[in-house]
Amino acid sequence: MSQLPNCPKCHSEYTYEDGSSLVCPECSHEWTLQADSDNGEDNKVIKDANGNVLNDGDTVTVIKDLKVKGTSLVVKIGTKVKNIRLIDGDHDIDCKIDGFGPMKLKSEFVKKV
């Protein structure tokens, strides 16, 4: 049995082959071995409010009260958010917050724990 590489996005060891590409069942990232060795995909570095580099799966804390658009709810300062996922866009953190559900946050309003 050949050893497949870990997922370059979430570093999961449970990758599998699907035709000519590799797939991660945990984060649904797909890549080819040739593309993996040719260029460093995802060179964008996302940092928190203090300048610490954020990675998928990190735990962060909200540093400012954040109003939830369309509701009267507020995510309070000090709210701990576990297992974040980094995405492209203005709101670059995808997460689930207890009591609020799925939400997207800006990295400038969180700090790494």
From TrEMBL:
The keyword Iron does not apply. Residues 46-113 form the Protein YjdM C-terminal domain. InterPro entries: YjdM (IPR004624), YjdM_C (IPR013988), YjdM_N (IPR013987). Keywords: Hydrolase. One of its GO terms (molecular function) is hydrolase activity. Pfam families: YjdM, Zn_Ribbon_YjdM. Residues 3-32 form the Protein YjdM N-terminal domain. Belongs to the YjdM family. This is Probable phosphonoacetate hydrolase. It comes from Brevibacillus brevis (strain 47 / JCM 6285 / NBRC 100599).
